[in-house]
Amino acid sequence: xxxxxxxxxxxxxxxxxxxxxxxxxxxxxxxxxxxxxxxxxxxxxxxxxxxxxxxxxxxxxxxxxxxxxxxxxxxxxxxxxxxxxxxxxxxxxxxxxxxxxxxxxxxxxxxxxxxxxxxxxxxxxxxxxxxxxxxxxxxxxxxxxxxxxxxxxxxxxxxxxxxxxxxxxxxxxxxxxxxxxxxxxxxxxxxxxxxxxxxxxxxxxxxxxxxxxxxxxxxxxxxxxxxxxxxxxxxxxxxxxxxxxxxxxxxxxxxxxxxxxxxxxxxxxxxxxxxxxxxxxxxxxxxxxxxxxxxxxxxxxxxxxxxxxxxxxxx
Length: 315
Description:
Strand content: 15-25%
Helix content: 25-40%
CATH class of the largest domain: Alpha Beta
CATH superfamily of the largest domain: HUPs
Distance between the termini: 42 Å
CATH topology of the largest domain: Rossmann fold
Order of helices and strands: EEHEHHEHHEHEEEHHEHEEEEEH
Strand order of the largest sheet: 1-4-3-2-5-6
Number of helices: 10
Structural class: alpha/beta
Radius of gyration: 22 Å
Largest sheet: 6 strands, parallel
């Protein structure tokens, strides 16, 4: 029972209770990256929702629990919140329930989690989980806990096995690992599509323009980036099809930069795109970010990077 636009609820007070009166088909997880494993979970959710004519709901947390527990060194985010919201909406999810993860949620027991969130809020009829799913205080809740509750509280459970690609279990951790190693082919296989970063084009210092390489600058809006370096990319959102480009993710050490930034030089393109929302697909990693002794040396390298990116994207 798919409705036209996804409802977002960040608290139980703002939850669309009327919409879930007939019950819901629910899955729970971080859904960072929406990789092939997440896509399999959603396929099972949609199939059951169609069979029972019920709405679908994804439950997640913000910040992600791993970020909360590793506040000093959080794992690199594959998706910021807006990107995750957009991806779930595009997939066709009806309700995105994403409460804040803090002290209260950290200390909630498994039984309370099931009764308060799954039953009273989401009105779960069928729950789809991955094969490594754990929940509640100290990750005390697991499949057996859910099975006991399901019998008592009248809902069903389906545990979906992990996706394995080339002998490797697909997970957000394995995607992060592939991206950090610059293995974009592996990351693409695990995600089922190229790794993407999206954001609004902001004004910059015009450094690229002065060097003959005007760039569209996008704030990363995440504590840690999953990718760093120079890349061949394709840009979506500005034309009917993708535009070939070369991109840098880093701090611009030649100019003593500090804050990481995504800078994209789109080939053969000269339009004012400030304020436009773009999607950047990472196709191949060219090299590490380097500090150059002179601007001339940097420009020379930019010529090489552009030529290499053009060749890769034309292949």
